Amino acid sequence: MPSALPERGNNSVGHADPGAPPARSGDPARYGIAVDLGTTSVSLALARMTPGADPQVLVTVDARNAQAADFGRDILSRLSGALAGHGERLRDLAQRQVIELLAQASAQAGLELQAVATATGQVVIAGNSAMAALLVGADVSTLATAPFAPVRDLRCAAGPLAELFGPARLMILEPLDAFVGGDVRADLITAGLMAGSDQPRLLIDLGTNAEIVLAQSQQLFVCSAPAGPAFEGGGFKLTGSQILADVAELLRHGVLGTDGKLDDQNPRVRRDQSGVAFVTGPQSGQALSQRYLRELQLAKAATATALTRVLAAAGCQPTAVARVDIAGAFGSALAADDLVTLGLIPHSWRDRTRSLGNASLAGALAVLGGASPTLSPDLTLTPVDLPNDPAFNAALIAATDLTWV
Question: Which one of 168, 203, 333, 401 is most buried, counting C-beta atoms within 10 A?
Answer without folding.
Answer: 203
